[in-house]
Amino acid sequence: MFCSEKKLREVERIVKANDREYNEKFQYADNRIHTSKYNILTFLPINLFEQFQRVANAYFLCLLILQLIPEISSLTWFTTIVPLVLVITMTAVKDATDDYFRHKSDNQVNNRQSEVLINCKLQNEKWMNVKVGDIIKLENNQFVAADLLLLSSSEPHGLCYVETAELDGETNLKVRHALSVTSELGADISRLARFDGIVVCEVPNNKLDKFMGILSWKDSKHSLNNEKIILRGCILRNTSWCFGMVIFAGPDTKLMQNSGKTKFKRTSIDRLMNTLVLWIFGFLICLGIILAIGNSIWESQTGDQFRTFLFWNEGEKSSVFSGFLTFWSYIIILNTVVPISLYVSVEVIRLGHSYFINWDRKMYYSRKAIPAEARTTTLNEELGQIEYIFSDKTGTLTQNIMTFKRCSINGRIYGEVHDDLDQKTEITQEKKPVDFSVKSQADREFQFFDHNLMESIKMGDPKVHEFLRLLALCHTVMSEENSAGELIYQVQSPDEGALVTAARNFGFIFKSRTPETITIEELGTLVTYQLLAFLDFNNTRKRMSIIVQNPEGQIKLYSKGADTILFEKLHPSNEVLLSLTSDHLSEFAGEGLRTLAIAYRDLDDKYFKEWHKMLEDANAATEERDERIAGLYEEIERDLMLLGATAVEDKLQEGVIETITNLSLANIKIWVLTGDKQETAINIGYACNMLTDDMNDVFVIAGNNAVEVREELRKAKQNLFGQNRNFSNGHVVCEKKQQLELDSIVEETITGDYALIINGHSLAHALESDVKNDLLELACMCKTVVCCRVTPLQKAQVVELVKKYRNAVTLAIGDGANDVSMIKSAHIGVGISGQEGLQAVLASDYSFAQFRYLQRLLLVHGRWSYFRMCKFLCYFFYKNFAFTLVHFWFGFFCGFSAQIALDTSYWTFINHVFIWGSIAIYFSILFIMHSNGIFGIFPNQFPFVGNARHSLTEKCIWLVILLTTVASVMPVVAFRFLKVDLYPTLSDQIRRWQKAQKKARPPSSRRPRTRRSSSRRSGYAFAHQEGYGELITSGKNMRAKNPPPTSELEKTHYNSTSWIENLCKKTTDTVSSFSQEKTVKL
Question: How many CA atoms does the CB half-sphere of 966 hold within 13 Å?
């Protein structure tokens, strides 16, 4: 009642800084988090409720109650209560252990220390004691304790940098900036303690990319957006300190709002056993009724003759009442048809399978000494029934490590390795890389195996020098020196870091920058370039350019970007080089490398001044400002001279391609759900062979509202199914069973390979009730589905959608905190011990270190667990029916008197004696016969000492063993071969079909001749983020230094006073550009 009143009351959140009493009246949640299921008071009732959801447990509880009635029980209640208590206790202990580790994890997080401003001084407080309205100090590399409004920081203009890997999986840094009025507070504790601003904002929600609020302070109001907020789960990077005011705490934070609840997971075998128990219980009722009727008839016809011997009084017991009591007596006697030992045995088998997973050396990652771990013992057989896998990208499929692999300069490829016959060979461990140790500032981890590039640099090839000079100048990287004097690069995207590092190792070292200059070291000589203009990246342009003036006074434009865009800007004289470079790009793309084209242009001084004047006018315009600027960019970025192309490897984890291929052959569909940009996800799809150029079509859903999304889905379905199909209206929801049958029929009619790519904002509309049927139908018909820019909650919603409407077993795999909600939602959650902490592992059912181990987990452990469990259940039910029906048959010979045919205690004792006793006697006699003791007593009768060793040296013995083995095995082998040939199982038929398809398929080439003109090559175009160029030229992210000498030319600053407003107005992605780009022909 209280919670509902609170939710109704909080239509907006009002928070006052440094005033706990004011904020307490709103009863906001504190910063303590709970991910556990139980506490000391609720463990027993909740756990018992969950356990008695198992029909068998409830059945045996009722049976126990019946056995306590002496009139109907011929068996002691002890035989039921002991195993029942044992099973419930074992399960409760296991559940309590699992929840203990959740409590331990929660306590570890809640007890982290944070500096909180209390009573005009900073005090160390535990995270769980932090309250809404408190002001917190964060230091570099610290986790953010709650959702904060950034007040001030150590960086100029109140900027700070955060890593959001736990929220969206991205490891590149994000910029957050404080309001100018609060950034003046700095680190002055007294001023911060007097800060009494009031924030009125939205209520807690799960939208990571949106925030709306107003700060009222000093009789003025200031609007707040997402750029002013630092979310819990972020890590402060490259910022010495910052202060923030707590807006949302604990369960109200956006991170926790996106975390799914811990759910009680049951396997399909459990549900099947529940159903079987119900049917068998019905069968038991029928047997009891039959025997009760028999007892009533027997009592009325024959039973009177036995009353004298049994000392029954006349009329004391009627035949009907006798039958009624007999019914319940037989219910007790025949209870072994579903013995409680079934669940004990199942749990023991599952425990054994869990140990098989833990002990599997082939799933042990030796580099980090991380074994596979089954964190639950109840889901093993479910691994063998997976139909859908939902995978994260960053850290799961990839290592998130960018490496400069190849380049094409002036029509020549560098980075390949050739043998003595000038034939291309693979790079092996024996091949020595280029030695960069002579360069003091080289990156020691960088490796390049082609020595020809170093030779071209030493020979002074002007094209090679210009190529590397461009890489060292055209970027948004920031440099700084650490305490040891080493040069450290702070990169906005890992792609740029790889390119600048490559130029650094080859002698063109980016040293420093100011808003007006860029300083690089060219083969040992410091050169300072004047930065005249910065033509920033955006998702429509898919390129970035800079205009610089060298010390000789030459003005040059350097540009890099997507080849499909940049090739259209080239001068006609580049036709031959364009053809060569395009072939090289196709080769690089065929190997899954992320590529971009490199070009430059010499500019005339007079022309540049005129263009720059027009750019200043466009920047000052109030109408159509962005369109005018874009037009000027297009005007100057033409007649470019092509230099070449780069190829960067977004390093996949080892064995990812083979794993995805094998899982696809097992008819398991893999969906990629990532928080990364659309182009990043597409490129990884190509690198993993989930997306190929041979696909019939790739559908891109990028609508901005529900109507557009529905229309795009309909068009995609028309292309996939053809015009002859009558499409179901999205507003009409079919019956679930009919929908499943229809989808299964349609799936069989799809002959081509299709892929679906959908963005986060489109997915939000597609998950609405009237559109999600269309989305699910289309997605399930596609071979590959990629959802990008999705929030953690959306990941869970996609999993729930497939679970609910496809009735399929799902598995979710991820490595970060942003994957926790989908891991909890799926039938099985797998966590990877990666770079993003252990949150995913702690929430998972299984964990290991590499994605490739998923293949063995499903196709080996999952298959065998399911196979063994099914065999066990079949045998177990057969055994119990055979044992129980003996008592049913015996009832016809004992006057239906509910007497047991076999004394269970006696039978159990005899069973153990014969089984264990026979084994013990056999081995005892075997050891005695071959011992020295028996030989010493009877040397003539037992001359067998050492006979095994001597006999095995005789050839005839081995011949006898061989003949015996062959004679024993051959009939079985011949029978099985004949059975496979004459009566093949479904698995045999599928295996034959796969082999036939493999033989019939033409050999695939590593260099595809035809390819879709996607932006698969454009590594830069999807790894960068708009706005960083304006941030650099404004100088707001640079610490104050001595002003460098200026050029005669006027510098452009892009109206630096308003760069933040411009950045806030621009959208992060214009994904529709990808669908338009598909029509571009090289």
Answer: 6
* Residue list for the binding site for Mg(2+): 392, 394, 815, 819
Instruction: Kindly provide the residue ranges of all beta strands, DSSP E only, lying in 506-576, ordered along the sequence.
Output: 508-513, 517-522, 525-535, 543-549, 555-561
Beta bridge partners of 105: none
CB 291 within 8 A of CB 328: no
Contact criterion met (CB below 8 Å) for 371 and 845: no
Could you give the CA distance from residue 715 to residue 1067 in angstroms, rounded to a whole number?
26
By the 8 A CB rule, do 836 and 392 touch?
A: no
Task: Determine the Cα–Cα distance for residues 321 and 72; give it in Å rounded to an integer.
Answer: 11
Residue 468: what residue type? L
Average pLDDT of span 233-249: 90
pLDDT of amino acid 317: 59
Q: Which of 650, 648, 684, 686 is nearest to 408 (CA)?
A: 648
In angstroms, the CA 482 to CA 486 distance is: 6
pLDDT in tens, 95-143: 888 788 888 888 888 898 899 998 888 899 999 999 999 999 999 889 9
Residue 396 DSSP SS3? coil
d(CA 54, CA 264): 12
| Termini Cα distance of the chain | 65
| Residue 415 falls in which region: left (phi positive, over 0), alpha (psi -120 to 50) or beta | left
What is the C-alpha separation between 200 and 12, in angstroms, rounded?
A: 7
Instruction: Report the share of the chain in percent with pLDDT over 90.
Output: 20
CA 777 – CA 719 distance, rounded (Å): 13
What pLDDT is recorded for position 1059? Answer: 38
Task: Report which of residues 565 and 492 the model is more confident about.
Answer: 565
Q: Reduced to 3 states, what is the DSSP secondary structure of residue 390? A: strand
Q: Which residues pair with 811 in a beta bridge?
A: 389, 828
Alpha carbons within 13 A on the beta-carbon side of 194: 7
DSSP state of 570: B
Closest to 159 (Cα-Cα) out of 1078, 1041, 1027, 1066: 1027
Residue by residue, DSSP assigns 1006-1028 as: SS-SS----TTSBHHHHH--TTH
Residue 203 DSSP label: P
What is the distance between the alpha carbons of residues 319 and 326, in angstroms, rounded to a whole number?
10
Instruction: Please provide the average confidence, as pLDDT, over all residues in the chain.
Output: 79
- For residue 173, the SS3 value is strand
Q: Could you report the per-residue pLDDT of 261-282, keeping only the tens digit for each?
A: 656 677 778 788 878 878 888 8
DSSP string, 215-230: EEETTEEEEE-GGGEE
Q: What is the spatial distance between Cα 188 and Cα 195, in angstroms, rounded to a whole number?
A: 11
pLDDT digits (tens, 9 = 90+) for 354-402: 999 999 999 999 888 889 999 888 888 889 889 999 998 777 887 767 8
Label residue 417 by pLDDT band (50, 70, 90).
Answer: confident
Angle at Cα 971 formed by Cα 965 and Cα 975, nearest 5°? 140
- Cβ atoms of 856 and 363 closer than 8 Å: yes
Distance from C-alpha of 388 to C-alpha of 809, rounded to nearest angstrom = 7
**Active site residues per annotation:** 392
Q: Which residues are annotated as a binding site for ATP?
A: 392-394, 496, 537, 560, 594, 674-676, 789, 795, 818-819
Helix (H) or strand (E) holding 194, with range, is helix 189-194
**How far apart are the C-alpha atoms of 500 and 504, rounded to whole Å?**
6
149 and 36 Cβ atoms separated by less than 8 Å: no
**Alpha-carbon span 137 to 115, nearest angstrom:** 5
Residue ranges at the known binding site: 392-394, 496, 537, 560, 594, 674-676, 789, 795, 815, 818-819
> Strand pairing of 697-701 and 754-759?
parallel
Q: How far is CA 1005 from CA 398, 585, 764, 989, 1002, in A?
A: 24, 16, 39, 29, 9
